[in-house]
Amino acid sequence: MGDWMALFEAALPVLLQGAAHTLLFALVAMVLGLALGFAVAMVRVAKLPVLSQLAAFYVSAMRGTPLLVQIFVIYYGLPGVGLELDPVPAGVLALTLNVAAYLSESLRGGIAGVAKGQWDAAFSLGFTWWQTMRHIIAPQALRLSVPSLSNSLISLIKDTSLVSVITVTELMLATKEVIAQTFQPLPLYLAAAAIYWALSALFERLQRHVENRLNLAHQR
């Protein structure tokens, strides 16, 4: 056990640096994915011709194929058609496109969860469709979608481990590099798992805080 503690102490700075990169990738992909997911959800809810079908196909393709395959297609496949990306942009793009598909469904479900009477009341007051969505429906849908959106972020934190396959330096690749130097896979993989768990627990706590604040504001 003493050897493990010494190993943890020596490896901790490298693992924490990798964890910081993991968190950064997850947050950037989450912000970009939320923007894209909202746009996709709006297109599908508005049932825009052609665009709605394209959006549905995109969501189906992203949710129906493994993230690892999507990473390979973007990083190794796109150069075949003249589009070559560095590992970090390729990893962020893959994570963004993947999580946006799930976020769009969460937001679409939240919109569907708002009572139809809210739409009727807004239209009776002279609101347009977009004004109703922006001022009345979207805020309520966001409150309903918080648990699902938070779950997607937690999953995204764990999914960042997959970008290590294209040499993006995040927690998993940092762990592998330390293992290559120390030949101690078990304690180091356990340490990496503990860090992922800690990050997930942190966002679970943040999720509960946001839910409580939104519920309190809704009750008022």
Textual characterization of the structure:
This is Putative glutamine transport system permease protein GlnP. Residues 19-207 form the ABC transmembrane type-1 domain. One of its GO terms (cellular component) is ATP-binding cassette (ABC) transporter complex. With 220 residues, this protein is an all-alpha fold. The protein has one domain: MetI-like (MetI-like fold, Orthogonal Bundle), CATH 1.10.3720.10. Helix content is 83%, strand content 0%. It has eight helices and no strands. The relative contact order is 0.15. The mean pLDDT is 90.
- Computed over alpha carbons, the radius of gyration is 21 Å
The CATH architecture comes to Orthogonal Bundle
Shape: flat
Number of domains: 1
What structural category do the secondary elements indicate? Answer: mainly alpha
Name some characteristics of this structure.
single chain, 220 residues, MetI-like fold, 83% helix, flat
Kindly summarize this structure in a few lines.
The protein is mainly α and 220 residues long.
Task: Detail the topology: elements first, then pairings.
Elements: H1 2-46, H2 51-64, H3 67-77, H4 87-112, H5 116-124, H6 129-159, H7 171-182, H8 185-219
